[in-house]
UniProtKB/TrEMBL annotation, chain A:
It catalyses: 2 a quinol + O2 = 2 a quinone + 2 H2O. Keywords: Cell membrane, Membrane, Oxidoreductase, Transmembrane, Transmembrane helix. PANTHER family: CYTOCHROME BO(3) UBIQUINOL OXIDASE SUBUNIT 4. This is Quinol oxidase subunit 4. It comes from Geomicrobium sediminis.
UniProtKB/TrEMBL annotation, chain B:
It is a multi-pass membrane protein. The chain crosses the membrane at residues 28-52, 64-88, 100-119, 139-166, 178-202. The keyword Transferase does not apply. This is Quinol oxidase subunit 3. It catalyses: 2 a quinol + O2 = 2 a quinone + 2 H2O. Residues 28-204 form the Heme-copper oxidase subunit III family profile domain. PANTHER family: CYTOCHROME BO(3) UBIQUINOL OXIDASE SUBUNIT 3, CYTOCHROME C OXIDASE SUBUNIT III. Catalyzes quinol oxidation with the concomitant reduction of oxygen to water. Belongs to the cytochrome c oxidase subunit 3 family. It comes from the Bacteria. Its EC number is 1.10.3.-. Keywords: Cell membrane, Membrane, Oxidoreductase, Transmembrane, Transmembrane helix. The keyword Metal-binding does not apply.
Length: 106, 206
């Protein structure tokens, strides 16, 4: 992998692609949040999916996550970190919000 | 995985930062550190999402958030992540001066971002949204403040790296330091993507 990354091309196509895609994904997420008529839950799922795609682009296009002889360990470590992050953030929200409205119906 | 150094093929095309074993291991170690950083930020995000409606009688976030300012901060941070990537690209072409140039652009844009964030915070505090105004604002400032602190550390870190490259030239040691610094900088952008989505865009929706 390390050999391949040092390609003969001197023009940073990979970075420019990553940069343009970042801006496009940000703009699409913004447009969905501002102007779309989907249900709130659908919009939340959509904009967070776009955020994960954009994060993956950063990791692959700018941070060269999969290159070097340790590429697989690096990618595995970040996938595990993403799993922990989703469990902690979404799990906390779910545990503490679940049934929170029930008390108000008395 | 095989860790014996002789198993790794080193050619002239191998980027400088991967040529020494300590360089490779430092980079791997930094990736594992970034995993811990993800865990840190996920706890702050978890806190923020739990407290998202606990605004008490303090000023509401919808009344304060200035979308134009947020978009400007996002664009600045995306651009400096890009220029940081270009710096590593130039380093791999052995263009030391261009690399330092792009790093200087990166640091400048990072400072602009930090300035905008401080302006935003001062504006919020002047409107009554302080750290102790409500549980919501506490978690808001804690999450964004931790990110802002990371950006400040990144700026100082890059200044020292540039000084080292100027004094000792590009070699296997300084190249791996530049690369690790760039990983840290891109990671700050990854965190910002989720702050932009989870804090600012979510406010427009819910």
């Amino acid at each position: 992998m390390a050999e391949k990354s040092m390609s003969k091309s001197h023009f940073p196509w990979k970075h420019i692609f990553g940069y343009i895609m970042s801006i496009v994904l940000t703009a699409v997420a913004l447009l969905i949040a501002l102007y779309s008529n989907f249900a709130v839950r659908t919009i939340v799922i959509l904009i967070f999916s776009l955020a994960f795609v954009q994060a993956a682009l950063q990791l692959l296009m700018f941070m060269h996550m999969t290159e070097s002889s340790n590429g697989k360990i690096q990618a595995g470590s970040m996938l595990f970190a993403a799993f922990i992050a989703i469990v902690v953030a979404l799990g906390s929200y779910w545990v503490l919000e679940f049934g929170i409205h029930l008390n108000h119906h008395e | 995985m095989k860790f014996e150094p002789e198993e790794v093929k080193i050619s002239e095309n191998t980027p400088l930062e991967y040529q020494s074993q300590s360089g490779r291991f430092n980079i791997l170690g930094f990736w594992i550190f970034l995993g811990a950083e993800v865990a840190l930020f996920s706890t702050l995000f978890g806190t923020y999402f739990v407290l998202i409606n606990r605004t008490a009688s303090a000023v509401q976030p919808q009344e304060l958030i200035d979308l134009g300012l947020v978009l400007m901060m996002t664009l600045v941070l995306l651009t400096c992540s890009f220029t940081c990537g270009l710096a590593v690209h130039e380093m791999r072409l052995n263009q030391k001066k261009r690399m330092i140039g792009w790093l200087a652009v990166t640091i400048t844009l990072g400072a602009v971002f930090l300035g905008l964030e401080i302006y935003e915070f001062v504006h919020y505090v002047s409107e009554g949204a302080t750290l102790s105004a409500s549980a919501y604002w506490s978690s808001f400032f804690l999450l964004l403040g931790t990110h802002g602190l990371h950006v400040a550390i990144g700026i100082i870190w890059f200044i020292f790296i540039i000084i080292q490259v100027v004094m000792r030239d590009l070699n296997t040691i300084s190249a791996s330091k530049v690369f690790i610094g760039s990983l840290y900088w891109h990671f700050l952008d990854v965190v910002w993507i989720f702050i932009f989505t989870g804090v600012y865009l979510l406010r427009l929706v819910i």
